[in-house]
Amino acid sequence: MEEVQNAIQKELMDPSAVKGYLPGMARAAANASKGAVFCADEMDQFNARAMFDMFAMLQLGRLMNTADPTTPADADDAAMCQTLLSATDMVIPIVQRPQEGLAYFLGLKTPMYRQMEQGFDVCFHRAMYLINNFIERDKTGELTEMEESSYVKQVIKNRGRDVKEGELTELLAALMVASVDTTSSLINWILINLARNPAVQEKLHAELSDKLKGESIASLRDKSLREELPYLHAVIRESHRLTPSVFVASVKKVGSEIDVAGYRLPEGTVVALNLNAMQNDPSIVPDVSEFKPERWASEQVSGRKGTDGEVIDHQIVSNPFSVGSRKCPGARVAHNEVVCFVAQLVQDWKFEPHPEDPSWQTHIDDVPYHQGVVSQPSPMPKFKISPRV
Fold first, then answer.
1. CB of 163 within 8 A of CB of 200?
2. For labelling, which of 53, 84, 148, 304 has a CA lying 20 to 30 Å from the CA of 67?
3. Where are the alpha helices (DSSP H) in the chain?
4. Bridge partners of 352?
5. Using an 8 Å Cβ cutoff, are 34 and 70 in contact?
6. Which of 364, 389, 388 has the alpha carbon at shortest distance from 377?
């Protein structure tokens, strides 16, 4: 199994390999963005389909077209996105409900557990079909130019002799199933924050117009995206601070009794790193309730060094996909997906609160959300979306 994991991780974690996927991702992003204006009342569903389209393009070199309702798409692919969202929404409620734990201990399946399991099975089998179809067409030399440069093709080409095709197919399918929820949650919160802060949105649009000049983010493929688009990255980072899609970054069980900052933790204590509380502590974060991407400018970060506030600049706090040996193996890809799609959306559209949706009148702290695998706004507010001139 280790050989299989190494085979699929290399092409996801190598910086040069990940940059090579940018042109395809940008093409899928541009395709998906066309549908935004038709989905102003269901942007969470739209963003999930867009993330599926972008990852499928990277993984298979194929445009799925599920996000734009004006472009023909396979109904099974669109259904997979919807089923996946429904299934992931049930994960945390199942974990938190005592009756679910008791049923699992007794070897029983509750209706909710069965529904979640069936949902993931449907998605996994669809992903398996797509991967197997790709592999068969590769064997017969039927792949297109885009498919030849895809992630799956590179994995097949570079896999070792000990990697069995069946094991590889299952992991690739699981990767596709896991590709939608976290990234779409980030996009949802970013769009909410941009609509609530029009001056920030206009400043971001100005940076994108200046650097990209109407082109996709693939035009910066040979440059550092962070250096070329610092305000875009600051917007993403500030959204992760104010409205993180993942509240808990790490959960550990204490192996032996230890003392942490004056608190005695007995052996077996479960400790969780709460990102939300740390990043929204008014004692270390000035103007804590305000959406201020400027706080992530290099001079602001340097000014926090040596103070209590520097904790928010630690990698494990600042990265929504975690860091180190336990980080998401697709973290580089996921980050580029978010950067690519936000850049495309803000170049194409202006996002404003829908005047007839009262949920926009609440404070950002009071926006209702559902805690599934990630935190999703629920219900997603309705937008007013206008084309950029």
1. no
2. 148
3. 2-13, 15-20, 22-33, 43-60, 75-89, 91-96, 98-105, 111-139, 145-148, 151-158, 165-177, 181-196, 198-212, 225-228, 230-242, 275-279, 298-304, 315-318, 331-348
4. 384
5. yes
6. 364
pLDDT in tens, 90-138: 887 888 788 888 888 888 899 999 999 999 999 999 999 999 999 999 9
At 232, list the tokens: 């875009």
pLDDT value at position 204? 98
Q: Exposed/middle/buried for 288, CB within 10 Å: 0-12, 13-18, 19+?
A: middle
Helices 98-105/111-139 angle, 10° precision:
70
Residues with Cβ within 8 Å of 356's Cβ and at least 6 positions away in sequence, in order, are 382
Reported as half-sphere exposure (CB side, CA atoms, 13 A), residue 201 has a value of 22
pLDDT at site 69: 92
Q: Torsion angle, CA of 147/65/388/187, rounded to 10 degrees? A: -90
- pLDDT value, residue 129: 93
Q: Which amino acid is at 152?
A: V
**CA dist., res. 174 & res. 123, Å (int):** 9
247 near 275, Cβ under 8 Å?
A: yes
**206-261 pLDDT, tens digit each:** 999 999 988 888 888 878 888 999 999 999 999 999 998 888 777 788 889 999 88
The token pair that represents 244 in the structure block: 């993180």
What does the alpha-carbon distance between residue 116 and residue 111 come to, in Å, rounded to a whole number? 9
pTM above 0.85, yes or no: yes
Q: Which of 74, 62, 55, 58 is nearest to 137 (CA)?
A: 62
Which residues pair with residue 121 across a beta bridge? none
What residues contact residue 71 under an 8 Å CB cut-off, 6+ apart?
A: 31, 34, 35, 65
* pLDDT of the residue at 356: 93
Query: CA-CA distance, 138 to 338, in Å (whole number)?
Result: 30
Q: Which residues contact 83 (CB under 8 A, 6 or more apart)?
A: 119, 122, 123
Q: Give me the pLDDT at residue 252, please.
A: 83
DSSP secondary structure letter of residue 382: P
SS3 321: coil
Work out the number of other CB atoms within 10 angstroms of the CB of residue 60.
Answer: 23
Identify the sign of the CA torsion 355, 342, 29, 176.
negative
